[in-house]
DUF7869 domain-containing protein
Amino acid sequence: MKSRTALMLKMSLKGKQSDNTGRYDVDTNLEKDIVPISEILDRDETRLQDCPVLSLVDHTLGHIEEGMPVGGEPTTVEQIVNKEATSPTILDQEEVSSCESSSGLEDDPFQSSGSSYHPSDAEDYHMENKNGKRKRCLIGAAKESLGCGDGIIPDNTTYIVQKNKKIRAKKGQSDPTKWRRNTAKALRKTGKEYEGKKKVGNGSKYEIVRRNSRKLGDRCNSSKCMQSTKRQCGKITEEQRQELFKKFWSEMDWNQRKTFVATLVNKGPVGQQTTKTKSRRQLSLSYHLKINDIILPVCKKMFINTLALGEWSVLSWVKNSHSSGIISQTSSFPNRKKAVNVQRRLAIKEFLERLPKLPSHYCRSSTSKMYLENVFNSYSEVYELYLKETDKELVCSKPVFMSEMKLLNIDIFQPRKDQCDLCFSFKQGNVSSDIYQQHLIEKNRAREEKSLDKEKALAGEVCAYTMDVQAVQLVPFVLAGIIYFKQKLACHNFTIYSLSDNKVVCYVWHEGEGGLDANCFASCLMDFLDTEIKEEDKQKPKIFYSDGCCAQNRNSLLSNALFHYSKTKNVEIIQKYLVKGHSQMECDSVHSTIEKAKKNRKIQSPSNYVDIIRQARKRLKQPYKVKYVDFDFFKCYDEIKYISSIRPGLKKGDPCVTDLRALRYSADGISYKLNFDHEWITLPKRVNWTVGAIKPLYDTPLPIKGDKYDHLQALKKVIDKDYHGFYDSLRKLQ
């Protein structure tokens, strides 16, 4: 039988003849190289009679013959596969698709012509696609995938075979402790069973062998040792040997074992010459065991069997030790160069230290990680800048660069507050299913509650809003290399979104005008209640949805301010909190739209950022309303202290602030809910009805740090002169 390659070369378009119908038939000259399918089945019937694939062969080929009527078009493989999609079928999906030809019979020299003849090697025949790539099809590929080359398929096998693909490891730092060689080495050092290597013959080939765990060997029963006055093997009991063996392999590390052996084996000159020629033996060894702080001389067998060591290991350790018993630390590869020069790593560290950084916007109290300013979109951009700013002689590869970033605890992306810790812990198997299911119920219930309030707002029964602060925006932002190494001015955007009419109000300020404390957010919310609500909606209940960030939305200062407004205006105000990690709201879409609008835009001052926000909404008729506020806008509500805390509990184990789901403020007082389905409960706090006055929070603009001020002055050379006056007006912290 000729090879498949030769057969494929012969069965080309040149080896086909067309009839009047335009259909190609296999040239009759090639019939000598083709064996009928009946002969194939007869030939292989004995070998395949017990293989489940045989029934599939008959089944599939039967359909092929049924789908090839005389004078008609042949049935394609795709049609057969689709027809049998619901029956047990052995198919390699990728290979079958490569065998079909849906456009033009001329392009496929293996297109069936309706003949009952098939290539002789039916078990593993091949087809060529348009690109000339050879693919195994149907029977042979299926048998190979199922591992039944000998005609045997395991029972209960599912006859749908996916092509095996190599799964690449995740990108990141390697863990050498999990390498097979290091794992075996660690097991060997602890005396456990491991897989080692054994040299085969005189070549460089090795075979993997199983090494048994260390076990206490037989004791010395030699009559010479029993009668000798120099050796005291007989004085050591079996319990003492067991205790010494356990201590040696359980309580010592590898270096301690070496030192222990070196101190118990004495080196000395050769005492007796037993050969006429010069011997390779250069020293004599005397062995001892330490029992109850008493060193007893023993024979070599007693020593190595008690400690479960090999003779050559003991000899090597003793030779490499000094007179004090300390083992000399020699490297196995003295000429091997270090992977990365220390000087190069220092260059990476210096480069990263030059880049301005920010603490986490959401997790300042819970993480020490620092984040590069959001001028970088990927790690590749940071690495490209490193290549430009570093001498070629000190440049390292990207994996080394990334490892140094991790060691310095520096990242480019700030962690989102909306990442759910509980859901992530459940995926890792650290949270029970009951707790997770309860978490999902609370998440869905919070979303349902917001949907119900939105319907009420659309019906005109209440006024419902969502509010959140956008991630810090840095100004200026221009396409200049100096921008990466200079600190920039931080801008803040507190957004309130109306659920009834999609009205959006953005309160924008920079760090020279205000901070991010509760007074700033309370000032924005009070201004919104006073100026942005229609007159006909003034007396309607107001519902504000937010996340559970305590510094912004869930604190006693904001609650006192809202309670003061509610009591003064005689209106009901309700705060509702979404579940942590699932606090997606309508105002988040505003922030996303702003991010898209400022992409590839030149921002030279906060006023440019304000213009971008105003122009961000294009589809709806009403644009985003922006209030660009300064320092005298913010008020201090510290003296408005009706209650000292909003914690619903009093003692240990009672509900805390983060357990709150809703707070209601009215002229009668403050009430709360721990679950949206519960009734309102009066907050168990004594109310102080005598409060102070509301005062301005700042008397003057806020000064910024000296180094940041200097950086902003240096950035003036890459921005237009029209904006220089703004940066000159900033106050510098002395």
In short: The chain has five domains: 4-146, 181-211, 223-269+283-319, 342-411, 425-429+451-696.
